[in-house]
Write a structure and sequence with these properties.
The model has no long low-confidence stretch (mean pLDDT 97). This protein is 21% helix and 37% strand. The two termini are 17 Å apart. The protein contains 3 helices and 4 strands, in the order E-E-H-H-H-E-E. Strands 1-2-3-4 form a 4-stranded antiparallel beta sheet. With 111 residues, the protein is of the alpha+beta class. It has a single domain, classed as 6-pyruvoyl tetrahydropterin synthase/QueD (Tetrahydropterin Synthase, Chain A), CATH 3.30.479.10. 23% of the residues are buried.
Length: 111
């Protein structure tokens, strides 16, 4: 099994829709740190699990310096962002971690 990890840093804003009062309900931004984990039994014709540049195109170009509420259909929590990223990459992506601030990390992992 081949495994690769892509690390991205993006700056993006969001506001959360919560069932309690929170300052996170107002638009605010984070410098997100994202780790994308991919695996495959076989390499593609170029000898890769997945092209790192394509990951950046798929994720960074869509999320960096954007309002995440305009992109995700679900509440843009770190958990939902992690799942959205995994879905955008496809089945080779088995895990995504999203750090929205120091000490706050959400992980989505496929079963």
């Amino acid at each position: 099994m081949y495994k690769v990890v892509k690390r991205l840093e993006i700056s993006a804003a969001h506001k959360l829709n919560l069932n309690y009062i929170s300052k996170c309900e107002t638009l605010h931004g984070h410098n997100w740190i994202i780790y994308i984990y991919l695996k495959s039994k076989d390499l593609n014709a170029n000898g890769m699990v997945y092209d790192f540049t394509k990951i950046k195109e798929l994720i960074s170009n869509k999320l960096d310096h954007k309002n995440l509420n305009d992109i995700l259909k679900d509440n843009p929590t770190a958990e939902n962002i992690a799942r959205w990223i995994a879905d955008e990459i496809g089945p080779k992506c088995y895990k995504v971690s999203v750090q929205e601030s120091e000490g706050n990390i959400a992980i989505y992992e496929r079963d």
